[in-house]
Amino acid sequence: MLVGSLRKELADSVSSCRVLVVGAGGIGCELLKNLVLTGFKNIEVIDLDTIDVSNLNRQFLFQKKHVGKSKAQVAKESVLQFCPEANITAYHDSIMNPDYNVEFFKNFMLVMNALDNRAARNHVNRMCLAANIPLIESGTAGYLGQVTVIKKGLTECYECQPKPTQKTFPGCTIRNTPSEPIHCIVWAKYLYNQLFGEEDADQEVSPDTADPEASCESIICSVCRWLFYLCSQSMGSNDFDKRLRAILTAARAGASNQDGDIKRVSTKDWARSTGYDPVKIFNKLFKDDIMYLLTMDKLWKKRKAPQPLDWAVVQEMAYIQEEVSGQGLRDQQVLGVKGYAQLFCNSVETLRSQLAEKGEGAQLVWDKDDPPAMDFVTAAANLRMHVFSMNMKSRFDVKSMAGNIIPAIATTNAVIAGLIVLEALKILSGDLEQCRTVFLNKQPNPRKKLLVPCALDPPNTNCYVCASKPEVTVKLNVHKTLVQSLQDKILKEKFGMVAPDVQIEDGKGTILISSEEGETDANNSKCLSEFGIRNGSRLQVDDFLQDYTLLVNLLHCEDLEKDVEFEVVGDAPDKAPPAPNVPEEDKNIANGNQDSALPSTSSKVPIEKDDVLIVDSDEEPSSSTMEAAVEMGGVKRKLEDVETGGAGSKRKRLFELPINDDDIIALD
Amino acid sequence: MLDTVEKEDTVISEEEAAQYDRQIRLWGLDAQKRLRGSHVLLVGLRGLGAEVAKNLILAGVKGLTLLDHEEVTEESCRAQFLIPVGSEGQNRAQASLERAQYLNPMVDVKADTEPVESKPDEFFLQFDAVCLTGCPRDLMIRIDQICSQKNVKVFCGDVFGYHGYMFSNLGPEHHYVEEKLKAVKPSEGTSDGPDTKKPKVDPSETTMVKKTASFCSLKEALEIDWTSEKAKASLKRTPADYFLLQVLLKFRTDKGRDPQPSSFADDSTILRQIRDDVLEAQGLASDLIPDEFVSYCFSEMAPVCAVVGGVLGQEIVKALSQRDAPHRNFFFFDGLKGSGVVDYFATK
């Protein structure tokens, strides 16, 4: 007995059950459509976002007139147009809001993620574990995609396999020795925050004299070397004087500042003192600071030295005549130095006004879709690239990297959303053992598969989330790590908690952090050692919303790498070996905050936001898919490469596990 | 005919640049321009047709003609998302038109209510690509022949329950480009960094490599003689879905419709009979398609339409934009297993 394509019992299940869709974007729109057409009647959808014009190439439930409105709300209205009997509840909200507690999740037979960030995925993973509800997880980026099923006790959870954390660059690379455009872009974003936004101690832009690579020689030697350099240039005595004075001031300041920052005033305060004068700012960043870097001559023994830019000199240059293109997009043009200097000046002035309008103590937040903010980063990054002898990039390319843009199309999302519903049907039929992880390739693999189903893995017994008594060990310096850092960088960012409560296992049950607002604020600026925490101390960390308890063992360590505040023992996703033929730049990259910056685009899509780590070697088909598995399925696993009995063993690794005999095919 | 010179000269407006931003970043501006100059004919507006329509309209083709002579029935209301409720009795293409147009006002979407069988040969030649869904086998073969003589790209696709396929014929010489990473040697002058001593691969240094692929006709692809020794040898690696397709196309030809749930019992019997006939005629064992297959090939399953429609849509985009290697020449999707296979069928 069939109802449409489905057996009667299944069709009944489908029309009566309640499901939750988390996300109403690329995958979400396609998924909602598939669900109602398949006969699902009771659907709840949640998304905190509003509609943007760049969504319209794939989020087909939205039209231009909806830009600015709630995605969840408009998606619901659109669906009701072709399926008015569907019972849809839309929430314009974050799934991490404590209103959506375990009880809320228990209302549903299953949950389907259509997310684009790891924090939310981690959170929903824990909520579904706590509620013991099946979760269908998925992701797409460019041409690639993936779907998998998570069921407590039966399969791996989303956090069973360590995921590669986003790459951060060492401070000295950003501040002193950039060698790639991405370093300059990260620097420019830091600069934006230092000048106009929230100043962050981890986002310094001025030269770092504490750079271990720099010489430790005395200031006198540096100055002498600099004088010699000046003499070897031909310049007027006025310039000579000015520069000498500048360099001595800088050197003196540097000598007296322990941390190696040459500024004693904050960048923002200094800028304010100049009235945000673009020319002064330009000369400080691209001339004076560069000249200072030049005195750290050890840095330039094996590297090409940066070349300072002087505003007045730049003004003498001609504008570069770009071939007038009807060919490329306007944003794809690469301006010359003078063009970017002008752009820098204009954007500083615009941002200055924006800041003034907001009033005293105002801060701007960087947004790739805010034109002056994007102009500023484009200009500043390019000027720095030029200073450091790199080919400059168009606004289009800078926006990709700075804005962490993941190319996206409708068809990939359509395929993945179709696969999600097929998995959902298996779950509702009670056929969990039929569930699979399915990968979507760009090209068929050697076994001719474009869509590759793989058996699900059992849970990791040592998983720090779904194991019965999860435990981790963290190395840090108890005298230097603040309670605030523990909360924000370790428990929230690293371990994905939303509202942690921390007790020290010291026999007294001392409360270190309370999730109740204000209760433990006084502790935040103290270091851990002040609470008697030392090597071997244990913390019991609870997130009651996620129904999650984690035991944290602490190891005191004084020789962590520079810029590294803590290390999780045993879990070293950063050490995952890079795929063959893949340049460093293609990895996930971050610059401190949630943001990541990405190098170029097209099919070599490294992701961040969409959490699908992909590297497309372009050499052979299908290598990319398997990398796509990394984010969803964890760090690159052992090869189960059934078919390469030797020939072509240099090839891509395959996650594909044969699931029945038909799949094992002998090669010619 | 793809007139490449004309297509590349078009200027992309600010509006298009903003809307197509995320896909231009994937397949490049040239590809987008070619799409923008392309006209496509889509035959059949059931579940699969609606998916393909959506995908092509969102991609930004110049024009899409929706052709379907059938009327909206009560069932078809729930079968696809372009037809609004209350459209019973209207023509399917006509009923789909408004919501299709809303997907992207920059595309010229038209509805044609005539039966495709009645169209003269020249009708097809005004398009750059033709996509046939829900068509009987002989009709597909005929249209494929008309089109491939004039370099009109041909695509076919159908969904039967949990199963679906797509076929493409891009002609004997389909030209396309692939983007490859370039390894940059250290050179004089500005490079991409001060570390000029090391050769590096700059991720944005890519080069376009030109390639060609050849395709056979649909007739040739479907009329393989499996009794030959060579064919038998490759059987082990051949997806059974190919033969399932033959069975379902025969059903469609014989009964003038696809298997329908309201006549499940009778249709199942007929299907099994056709299976026996088809396999026997080719000297193949009947267990190549086990009996249970009948339970899974009725009606169009929405998620299967989404998967096949996604792959098919993307193949059309690739062919029109002449970028990236096309799948050659069949794609089979098995919704029960979740496997999607690309394979080449031709009579050599």
TrEMBL record, chain A:
GO terms for cellular component: cytoplasm; SUMO activating enzyme complex. Residues 7-463 form the THIF-type NAD/FAD binding fold domain. One of its GO terms (molecular function) is ATP binding. It is an enzyme of class 2 (transferase). Gene3D superfamilies: Ubiquitin activating enzymes (Uba3). Chain: B, domain 2 (1.10.10.520), Ubiquitin-activating enzyme E1, inactive adenylation domain, subdomain 1 (3.50.50.80), Ubiquitin-like 2 activating enzyme e1b. Chain: B, domain 3 (3.10.290.20). Residues 590-604 have a biased composition (Polar residues). It comes from the Eukaryota. GO terms for biological process: protein sumoylation. The keyword Nucleus applies. Its EC number is 2.3.2.-. Residues 570-610 are annotated as: Disordered. The keyword Membrane does not apply. Its main location: nucleus. Heterodimer of SAE1 and UBA2/SAE2. The heterodimer corresponds to the two domains that are encoded on a single polypeptide chain in ubiquitin-activating enzyme E1. Interacts with UBE2I. This is SUMO-activating enzyme subunit 2. It comes from Scleropages formosus (Asian bonytongue).
UniProtKB/TrEMBL annotation, chain B:
One of its GO terms (molecular function) is SUMO activating enzyme activity. Residues 20-339 form the THIF-type NAD/FAD binding fold domain. CDD domains: Aos1_SUMO (cd01492). It comes from the Eukaryota. Pathway: Protein modification; protein sumoylation. It is found in: Nucleus. Keywords: Ligase, Nucleus, Ubl conjugation pathway. Residues 185-206 are annotated as: Disordered. InterPro entries: ThiF/MoeB/HesA (IPR045886), ThiF_NAD_FAD-bd (IPR000594), Ubiquitin-activating_enz (IPR035985), UBQ/SUMO-activ_enz_E1-like (IPR000011). The keyword Ligase applies. Residues 194-203 have a biased composition (Basic and acidic residues). Gene3D superfamilies: NAD(P)-binding Rossmann-like Domain. Signal peptide: none annotated. One of its GO terms (cellular component) is cytoplasm. Its main location: nucleus. GO terms for biological process: protein sumoylation. Belongs to the ubiquitin-activating E1 family. Heterodimer of SAE1 and UBA2/SAE2. The heterodimer corresponds to the two domains that are encoded on a single polypeptide chain in ubiquitin-activating enzyme E1. Interacts with UBE2I. This is SUMO-activating enzyme subunit 1. It comes from Scleropages formosus. The lineage of its organism: Eukaryota, Metazoa, Chordata, Craniata, Vertebrata.
